[in-house]
Design goal:
By secondary structure, the protein is an all-alpha fold. Helix content is 60%, strand content 0%.
Length: 361
């Protein structure tokens, strides 16, 4: 008799959830979002997930999302309506979160700390965009379109400026080169006519830049946005908008502003080659007589926390996005219940806390 893969996924997720709520922690804490579980007393303590638990849950969640998008329910008629466009891009944003989560898991199992940090920051931004589209609906999609248009226009302007600079530099260098070549012809003639005199050195020829122009043409892509006006949209603005929408649109009761702090924190811990990161390659003490540069940084590890956070955040988004089109998400729901954050926990950062009445559909 065959086994229903979806039912098996839910059962595995349920088993991990059940293990997490039995007794106190006997393994190192790997996530900073852990708090009271659904149906538990506030004073009870659940066992946080281990790294192996996360590795077991990630493929289950990814499979659930993949199965949902492959189902007939998500075979959307290409009508071009605002609702279809909204659903498609909300789904695309969720798929992007899933891709980043999968690659974080691969990097984490390979002990690639820096890669996990880079992907963790990218996942956090992708997750913010996903919720922004899901709850902002088509107007939010238009704002993202405005930001993309601004980005494309900026790229075109930068490419054009580089091409103009290269052309001007080449023109000026060739002019100077011709002048020097003419002078060298005169020097060579003088040297030939005066063999008994000391030969005059020839001038060094100026360098003519050899860089190829960018030759970028984004006019068709820019025109595709029609009458839409270019406008910046920052992660900070989206985070503040989600904070405003959370209580009124029924998906969160806590501020999302702390997420922007962690987003910036991750920038300085891996994304950018900051002094904080570079210092990890030069671990010196005042008593050291010599300074050596290490081949690997002494960063410590945030990989397990980031993986667990990304798992919870992706499950959180999956329930909202897939639920918006009538899909049940038992695996995502179980993961969310297992990792449900407690914003009162001083060690916690909460990517939005579910309202008491539950998830809007």
């Amino acid at each position: 008799m065959s086994t229903d893969p979806t039912r098996l996924q839910v059962q595995v997720a349920a088993d991990i959830h059940d293990r997490s709520v039995q007794g106190r922690a006997t393994v190192p804490r790997v996530n900073h979002m852990h708090g009271p579980q659904t149906g538990m007393d506030a004073d009870s303590t659940a066992r946080p997930l281990t790294s192996d638990d996360v590795s077991e849950l990630v493929p289950l969640l990814l499979a659930e999302v993949k199965q949902a998008f492959a189902s007939s329910r998500w075979a959307l008629i290409n009508s071009g309506t605002e609702r279809v466009k909204w659903l498609v891009y909300a789904g695309a944003a969720l798929s992007h979160c899933c891709r980043l989560l999968a690659e974080m898991e691969t990097a984490g199992r390979a002990d690639q700390e820096m890669a996990v940090r880079l992907l963790g920051r990218a996942h956090l931004e992708a997750w913010v965009v996903c919720l922004y589209i899901r709850f902002g609906e088509y107007p939010a999609l238009e704002r993202l379109g405005q930001a993309e248009l601004r980005h494309l226009i900026g790229l075109q302007q930068e490419a054009d400026a580089i091409d103009a600079m290269l052309a001007a530099d080449r023109k000026e260098a060739r002019r100077r080169r011709k002048k020097v070549e003419k002078a060298n012809v005169g020097i060579a003639r003088w040297n030939a006519a005066n063999p008994n005199e000391g030969a005059k050195p020839l001038h060094e020829l100026p360098h003519v830049p050899q860089l190829k122009p960018v030759s970028l043409d984004l006019s068709e892509a820019i025109a595709g946005f029609g009458p839409l006006a270019a406008q910046e949209l920052t992660v900070s603005e989206m985070v503040d908008t989600l904070t405003k929408w959370g209580p009124t649109r029924g998906f969160a009761t806590e501020s999302f502003r702390t997420l922007y702090f962690y987003y910036r924190l991750l920038s300085g811990l891996g994304t950018h080659a900051s002094m904080t990161v570079l210092d990890q390659y030069v671990p010196t003490r005042p008593s050291d007589s010599f300074v050596r540069v290490r081949a690997a940084p002494s960063l410590g590890t945030a990989a397990d926390q980031l993986r667990c956070t990304a798992l919870y955040a992706t499950a959180y988004a999956a329930g909202f996005v897939l639920g918006a089109h009538g899909c049940d998400t038992p695996v995502a729901d179980r993961i969310e219940a297992t990792l449900y954050p407690n914003p009162a926990d001083r060690s916690a950062w909460s990517p939005g806390t579910r309202p008491v009445k539950g998830r809007p559909r």
